[in-house]
């Protein structure tokens, strides 16, 4: 129930719907019991057992409530029908119909209001999860499969709605239906009702035995669903490579093995769950069978119960069966919902290690430069950067070069605070970036990466990602600086053309130029270029490089370069090796040193 309480906090904004649901459920439960009790006078009229009462009965306390109710009904029937018994029958039939109509009307109204609560909670949990997914650091997703996260925000949240939130309907309605029905049953016959209670603990014991293993089985099902969704996500992302290497069968076999496990776990779970209904039904019929024997004996032999009351009593006992079965199913729902809620809350309660300090400042300007002082950082066990020092003065371009794994991209991740340093500090204008709000820090920076990350939307929407209020003229101006305006104009709908999932309708060079246009429109004082031209052909590289040079004018830039020809004009080139600076200086100075940088230039010249 611990998870249930945590999920219930999402119901607070919709509490008025919960109270309305409770109110109408109380009425439903009351009329549910009364509608069966009203059958007694109707049956008495049919069996000609109705006494003709000329005076209205007097209420003599709750101990005689049953007699008062019966005498009141008989008096009304006597008054209305006179000597015509059909009139009396029509009256009691009308009463029964009205009671059943009200019962079902209140049931509908109770379900109507709980719908807003259930769907509202579903919406808010999903919104909270999405907010948390975007808030958590990039490092979180290096450990989690994307498909598993997708499974949690879709199927697990739905499971919470089906299991936990359906219990909200049952908490009031079904227990009260049973309570009111039992009160009426006691009024009809105390002896018979006490006899019924002997069998209730037996039913509860059997049902709880079945439900104990459901949480574990449900957990297996949901985890496996996350597994095969991850396979689908990876397949769609890498379809070109899978086809090129004829690896379709390998991925199919991996997916088939996952769905096979899902099939096995689902069968176990559903078969256990399906036991609830037949066990509940059989126990109910068993109780009714014993009731027929014991109650029949009271009517036929002992004469302590009249036939009309006994038939109504049987209807009331059946009226307990449906809510009792619902409660038993709900107990299974709690077990299943527990597993889903645990997975959802695991994400919602994950602490974000990269947070704003309570007194963090909003920084809106950039005046002097960026300083990395004695910075050490590791992703897991081994340090990627060790005692790293670097100063990037305002208005200058500093290039970082070195072999793969030397720590170049790590510096971009640390300056943008996608990760926090393990040791040392990074300062902007003398202020530690940990003392600046993440939003204002990233507002000072533009990022162009090697992989052009675009979204399934129009060209204009992709360019205006960092400035949603941008006019069409501003968007076009940014595209012109990025050498993208010409090819955009040639698209079917120009700037309103949808570029497909990940921008797959465009070439690599076109995608990169859109990424540059996006950074230009944001117009930040600091620009970070992470191998922005390494994946392009020569002609695209020339256009992109020209766009980058236009963009970097009058800006402070950190350029992570793979192709050394693109950074010859940098104010300073820093050569990295295994997380440490081995050389730094201008292009000319480094060539004169005849060291690591010279070797890298010569290797690329030969490769070219």
UniProtKB/TrEMBL annotation:
Q: What CDD domains does this protein's entry cite?
A: ABC_6TM_MsbA_like, ABCC_MsbA
Main location class: membrane
Q: Where in the cell is it found?
A: Cell membrane
Q: Does the record carry Isomerase as a key word? A: no
Phosphoprotein listed as a keyword: no
Q: Which GO terms describe its cellular component?
A: plasma membrane
Q: Where is the ABC transporter domain?
A: 370-603
* Name of one Pfam family that matches: ABC_membrane
MF annotations from Gene Ontology: ABC-type oligopeptide transporter activity; ATP binding; ATP hydrolysis activity
Q: Which UniProt keywords apply?
A: ATP-binding, Membrane, Nucleotide-binding, Transmembrane, Transmembrane helix
Query: Which PANTHER family does the record match to this protein?
Result: ATP-BINDING CASSETTE SUB-FAMILY B MEMBER 10, MITOCHONDRIAL, ATP-DEPENDENT PERMEASE MDL1, MITOCHONDRIAL
Put simply, this protein is called ATP-binding cassette, subfamily B, MsbA
Lineage start = Bacteria, Pseudomonadati, Bacteroidota, Flavobacteriia, Flavobacteriales
């Amino acid at each position: 129930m611990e998870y249930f309480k945590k999920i219930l906090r999402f119901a607070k904004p919709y509490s008025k719907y919960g109270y309305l649901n409770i109110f109408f459920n109380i009425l439903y439960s009351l009329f549910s019991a009364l509608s069966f009790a009203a059958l007694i006078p109707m049956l008495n009229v049919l069996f000609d057992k109705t006494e003709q009462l000329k005076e209205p009965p007097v209420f003599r306390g709750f101990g005689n409530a049953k007699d008062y109710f019966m005498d009141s009904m008989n008096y009304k029937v006597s008054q209305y029908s006179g000597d015509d018994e059909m009139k009396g029958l029509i009256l009691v039939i009308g009463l029964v119909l009205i009671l059943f109509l009200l019962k079902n009307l209140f049931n509908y109204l109770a379900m109507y209001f709980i719908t807003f609560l259930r769907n509202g909670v579903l919406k808010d949990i999903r919104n909270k999860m999405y907010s948390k997914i975007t808030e958590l650091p990039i490092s979180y997703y290096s450990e989690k499969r994307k498909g598993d996260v997708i499974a949690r925000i879709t199927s697990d949240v739905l499971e919470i709605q089906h299991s936990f939130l359906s219990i909200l309907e049952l908490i009031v309605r079904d227990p009260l239906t049973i309570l009111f029905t039992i009160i009426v049953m006691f009024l009809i016959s105390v002896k018979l009702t006490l006899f019924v209670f002997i069998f209730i603990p037996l039913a509860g014991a059997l049902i709880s035995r079945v439900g104990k293993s459901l949480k574990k089985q449900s957990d297996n099902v949901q985890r496996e669903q996350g597994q095969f969704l991850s396979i689908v996500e990876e397949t769609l992302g890498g379809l070109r490579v899978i086809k090129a290497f004829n690896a379709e069968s390998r991925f199919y076999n991996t997916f088939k093995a996952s769905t096979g496990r899902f099939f096995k776990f689902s069968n176990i779970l559903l078969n256990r769950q399906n036991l609830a209904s037949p066990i509940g039904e059989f126990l109910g019929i068993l109780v009714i069978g014993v009731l027929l024997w014991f109650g029949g004996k009271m009517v036929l032999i002992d004469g302590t119960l009249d036939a009309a009351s006994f038939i109504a009593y049987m209807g009331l006992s059946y009226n307990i069966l449906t809510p009792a079965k619902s409660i038993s199913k709900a107990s299974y729902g709690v077990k299943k919902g527990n597993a889903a809620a645990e997975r959802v809350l695991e994400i919602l309660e994950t602490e974000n290690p990269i947070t704003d300090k309570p007194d963090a400042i909003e920084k809106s300007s950039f005046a002097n430069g960026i300083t990395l002082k004695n910075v050490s950082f590791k992703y897991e066990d081994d340090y990627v950067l060790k005692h790293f020092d670097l100063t990037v003065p305002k208005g200058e371009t500093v290039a970082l070069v070195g072999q793969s794994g030397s720590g170049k991209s790590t510096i971009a991740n640390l300056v943008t605070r996608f990760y926090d340093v393990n040791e040392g500090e990074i300062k902007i204008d003398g202020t530690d970036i940990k003392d600046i709000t993440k939003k204002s820090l990233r507002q000072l920076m533009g990022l162009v990466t090697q992989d052009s990350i675009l979204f399934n939307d129009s060209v204009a929407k992709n360019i205006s990602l960092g400035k949603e209020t941008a006019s069409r003229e501003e968007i076009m101006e940014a595209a012109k600086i990025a050498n993208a305006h010409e090819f955009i104009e040639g698209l079917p709908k120009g700037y309103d053309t949808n570029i497909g999932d990940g921008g797959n309708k465009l070439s690599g060079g076109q995608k990169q130029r859109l990424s540059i246009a996006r950074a230009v429109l944001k117009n930040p004082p600091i620009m970070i270029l992470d191998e922005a031209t390494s994946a392009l052909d020569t002609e695209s590289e020339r256009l992109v490089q020209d766009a980058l040079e236009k963009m970097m004018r009058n800006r402070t830039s950190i350029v992570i370069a793979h192709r050394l020809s693109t950074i010859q004009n940098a104010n300073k080139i820093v050569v990295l090796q295994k997380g440490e600076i081995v050389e730094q200086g201008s292009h000319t100075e480094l060539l004169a040193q005849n060291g690591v940088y010279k070797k890298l230039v010569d290797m690329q010249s030969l490769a070219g």
